[in-house]
Specification:
Length: 329
């Protein structure tokens, strides 16, 4: 039986946080043992260049994500770990061929593009406009069928499917039309009370490398209320804290706090301290593994190089076929 390839990409914006871990990485890694799937984890460092970035930090930020992937349990013998720029020539060339079947108007109408324009009005570049086309190349160059992304990325996946349909129709290729793949975890709430956990929102996240004291400080600033009421909140800071309690301490503990909220009241100081210890207990083994990897940079570089070699073998075949079908010598 042919394995379905799951492509996962994380921008190289620094160390992973709980949102990355619970929302995607943990669920993906559980599939390493499943014979139905082949997993490809990519650190998309070229994508990080589509918005303003620090050129002096990009390489280290990319390396940090690689370390976090490995520390979380990625097995290079079972899953392919890829730094995008290591095969960037192939991805970028394929993205150009894909751009010949996509219009500027189509790209400009994407809600994600409009959001980025608001965030970076002085940096509306061609790279930003072409972001979804490069993403399509990342995914389709490996004939990926499943992509674990949030619902906010669905417009980009639709671009990928559209590219696949047009290339298949015009040039007789056989690209799959990838679909969003939901891993256990899904949307991980922010600590600030609204939205999802994100590096772009200060105070909203807990890094996988945070120690117990840092986790306690981050949780201490999470918004709460009086601790009691007639209805348990379903949104906002308290609801988010209860979600974290369920994620790290179990459904039973959450129900206990809900009963307290409807009765004598919750002491948020106690809740946050218990929750901090539960989060740190899960992160501690990851941090210990990461510390070992930091002492062995030669091994990490070997993993990066080996992943690039495997990816290049696959991607070069795809690119060769595309060029032939499009009439290039």
């Amino acid at each position: 039986m042919k394995k379905k390839l799951i492509f996962s990409g994380i921008r190289a914006t620094g160390r992973l946080h709980l949102g990355n871990y619970l929302g995607m990485v943990k669920g993906m890694l559980q599939l390493q043992e499943d014979e139905k799937y082949q997993l490809l984890f990519s650190v998309v460092d070229i994508h990080a260049m589509t918005t303003p970035y620090d050129k002096d930090k990009l390489s280290q930020q990319t390396y940090d994500v690689v370390l976090d992937y490995l520390a979380c349990g990625l097995d290079p013998e079972k899953s392919l770990l890829l730094v995008q720029s290591k095969v960037g020539d192939l991805h970028a060339e394929l993205a150009f061929y894909f751009s010949t079947v996509m219009t500027v108007a189509r790209m400009q109408h994407l809600p994600t593009f409009k959001e980025k324009i608001k965030q970076h009005p002085d940096n509306v570049t061609m790279a930003l406009l072409n972001y979804p086309v490069l993403m399509a190349a990342d995914i389709l160059v490996y004939h990926s069928e499943l992509v674990p992304v949030g619902i906010d990325q669905e417009p980009h996946l639709e671009v990928t499917r559209e590219v696949a349909r047009k290339m298949n129709s015009l040039y007789g290729l056989d690209f799959p039309e990838p679909v969003r793949f939901a891993t256990k975890g899904g949307k991980v709430p922010s600590l600030v009370g609204e939205g999802k956990m994100s590096k772009s929102v200060g105070g909203s996240f807990i890094n996988l490398t945070d120690d117990l004291e840092t986790i306690e400080k981050r949780l201490a600033s999470a918004p709460t209320d009086s601790g009691k009421g007639e209805i348990v909140p379903i949104s906002g800071g308290v609801a988010n804290l209860l979600t974290f309690v369920e994620l790290f301490q179990g459904e039973g503990r959450r129900k206990k706090y809900e009963e307290l909220y409807l009765g004598e009241g919750i002491r948020y100081g106690d809740l946050k301290n218990e929750l901090a210890e539960a989060i740190y207990a899960e992160l501690k083994p990851i941090q210990e593994k990461r510390a070992e990897l930091e002492k062995n940079p030669d091994y990490v570089r070997q993993v990066i190089d080996a992943g690039a070699k495997k990816a290049r073998e696959i991607a070069s075949k795809t690119l060769k076929e595309v060029k032939e079908r499009m009439g290039l010598v």
